[in-house]
Specification:
Length: 253
């Protein structure tokens, strides 16, 4: 049974690695219910979880999950001590804590971008995360840790990617890295590259010149009437300093 469970876990982990880009160290986000079940069944989470998932892990929780255990009193004091040993991830409810189930689901968002494994015994969390693609679920049953099979939402998402209807997380990551290398903005609808500002240039000097006034049209030459004698022009010769004769300008009589 143990070997069969290990093979099933390996198959499920490969599914999330290939289709949703999960990598080591795996981040295990857990609440107080999982720690309480581990305490009751004498499970050493830090020792058994890496062996079961066959890789490095990071155990973490949220401030809301710790606050919830504090309000529940002494009955869950042991679970609180276990949960306090793990890393506390920042959640958006620091000033006003919410129930752990609501907090864990808010950490996943719509696509589980941080690739969290969720470890919980809470049915409300289980029902909520099965509506989100790419979220591995861990729970304790019969004194053992179990990695649940991929949800129907995850299977439908992978099928849609294979049919070309969606882009897989791995493809999205490669697209982002290519955009960063080329300097293309990551926001949707944004133009490629930065818009170049037009430099303020000086006006064209020719356009600053004053307009020239249009010249007055020259009057037409007078025509000689019939019978009138045509005036002749005489040319006088003038002497230059050297004594050369030059033709004088015509003088009309």
């Amino acid at each position: 049974m143990k070997i069969k469970r290990q093979k099933q876990a390996k198959k499920t982990i490969s599914f999330y690695k290939f289709n949703f880009n999960f990598r080591q160290p795996f981040q295990i986000l857990m609440d107080g219910t999982f720690c309480q079940a581990a305490l009751k069944n004498k499970i050493q989470i830090k020792e058994q979880m890496p062996k079961y998932l066959m890789g490095e892990i990071q155990l973490c929780t949220t401030n809301c999950a710790l606050k919830e255990l504090e309000t529940l009193g002494k009955q869950l004091y042991g679970a609180k001590l276990i949960l306090q040993r793990f890393q506390v991830r920042k959640c958006p409810h620091l000033k006003s804590p919410v129930p752990a189930s609501e907090c864990l689901l808010s950490m996943l968002g719509e696509t589980n971008p941080h690739h969290y494994f969720i470890a919980t015994q809470d049915r409300a969390v289980t029902a909520g995360l099965k509506k989100i693609p790419g979220v591995p679920l861990l729970y304790i049953i019969l004194n053992t840790i179990v990695l649940d099979k991929p949800s129907q939402e995850s299977l439908d998402h992978v099928q849609a990617v294979q049919l070309g209807e969606l882009v897989s997380p791995a493809q999205q990551q490669s697209i982002r890295s290519l955009k960063e290398e080329q300097g293309i903005p990551l926001k949707d609808g944004e133009r490629r590259g930065k818009k170049r500002k037009r430099k303020q240039s000086n006006p064209n000097p020719l356009s600053c010149l004053k307009k020239k006034k249009k010249g007055v049209p020259t009057p037409p030459l007078k025509k000689t009437e019939p019978g009138e004698k045509k005036k002749r022009s005489r040319h006088k010769k003038r002497k230059t300093v050297e004594g050369d004769n030059t033709t004088a300008p015509a003088v009309s009589l």
